[in-house]
Amino acid sequence: MITDKAGYKRERTYVLRKYGKSVETCHVAHVKRVLGLTKGPAPNRIDSSVGIKDCPPALWPIVEEAVRHIHAVRLATM
């Protein structure tokens, strides 16, 4: 589980600089949720079983790379 909230901005910046693509925070959140790196759904979410905007399959590999790159040390200890 990752508790670093600044990671979302760092991951989005990583993707923008490396690939020139802009991704949304919800895309990063979806990847982290699937990888099991979040605490759980936000308490203000209306339906906790559904994400608002899931990460598109075309962006998944680059967003996952960003998450793994930014949190490499934390992921290695999990």
| Strand content bin | under 5%
Which structural class best describes the helix and strand composition? mainly alpha
Rough shape? globular
Order of helices and strands: HHHH
Residue runs with pLDDT of under 50 for 5 or more positions = none
Q: What's the count of strands?
A: 0
Mean pLDDT: 82
What would you report as the Rg, rounded to the nearest angstrom?
Answer: 12 Å
Total of DSSP H or I helical runs spanning 4+ residues: 4
Share of residues in helices: 40-55%
The termini sit apart by 9 Å
Number of domains as seen in the coordinates: 1
For the report, how would you describe the main beta sheet? Answer: none
Describe the structure.
- The structure is a single chain.
- With 78 residues, this protein is an all-alpha fold.
- The protein has one domain.
- It is built from four helices and no strands.
- The radius of gyration is 12 Å and the shape is globular.
